[in-house]
Amino acid sequence: MTILTLFLDGVGLGADDPEHNPFATADTPTLINLTNGLRWLDSTGMQTSERAVFIPTDARLGVAGYPQSGTGQASLLTGLNVPTIIGRHYGPKPEVETRDIIRQRSFFRRLTASGKSARLLTAYPPRLLADFDRGKTLRSSIQQAAFESGEPHFTLEDVLQQRALTAEWTTDSWRRHLRFSHLPQYSPREAGRLLARLARAHDFAFHSHWLTDRIGHRGTLSEGIEILERFDAVLTGVLDASDDDAGLVIVTSDHGNMEDLSTRRHTLNQVPTLVIGSRAPEFAHDFKSLIDFVPACDRMLNDTR
Questions:
Q1: Which domains, ranges and CATH numbers included, belong to the chain?
Q2: What is the mean pLDDT of the chain?
Q3: Is the pLDDT of residue 142 over 90?
Q4: What are the residue ranges of helices labelled H in the chain?
Q5: Cβ burial, residue 264 (10 Å; 0-12/13-18/19+)
Q6: Is this structure's pTM higher than 0.90?
Q7: Number of Cβ atoms within 10 Å of the Cβ of 108
Q8: Which of 124, 203, 204, 194 is nearest to 163 (CA)?
Q9: What is the pLDDT of residues 78-117, one digit of tens each?
Q10: Number of helices followed by number of strands (H, E) in the chain
């Protein structure tokens, strides 16, 4: 059993509003097909299709205020209700108490300590890695959870050697904005196939994408539509190269944001969790909130069938 998680920062389930919600209008045939022909909206509800289970997922965790990335991602990757523990939603980066919780309970760390392989397949550019090392920039909760495993972050060299992917999947932003023109270039579907192949080497693989959250804060509807259509093609490639009987592919998020471009702040909406594979119904059993992710992964990875 292997698990590949495709994380989209700041994606919730919003209204059927084509003027403000990219999910209401983007051409995403793979996503829609996996949810019985329904778009990913607040009206979609839990769906079980031939290949997948779709679960509207609570990101508020019983704490007042707007969910944030720091505590939301920490809850996702520790199985603990971090906003309740520290008394508030906090982000975008984890504060001291949240970092301590991640240090102790990171799922990446627990898996590697038990002899399993767990890797964050997202690579980071040299300047950011240098800023991490000298303490100039805090890691996100996802980055911190992966770092606690003892495995180094993937680098520019890993992208060159096709051992990892950039956050936006295709290397496009690194080539255009960071001027790394010598990188391999992928179509979204090719990037998805590579992700699936890389994930096979690990019990638990995770890829983290952040542009969805940036678009939610200061992007446009057309940008939101473009990134969803790109992701739909990425997921198509992942499924091209995946065996439903050998593992699970999971799509999830930490809080709502991009689904409502009428506001530049986060939302109170539920977030989507899509579980793909023949054992998706087992994973989805009693799955209701972000803190159910780690226990569900534990069940599947420790099942010896």
A1: 2-301 (3.40.720.10)
A2: 97
A3: yes
A4: 29-34, 69-78, 82-86, 96-105, 107-113, 126-133, 141-147, 156-160, 172-177, 188-199, 211-218, 221-240, 280-284, 293-301
A5: exposed
A6: yes
A7: 25
A8: 194
A9: 999 999 999 999 999 999 999 999 999 999 999 999 999 9
A10: 14, 7
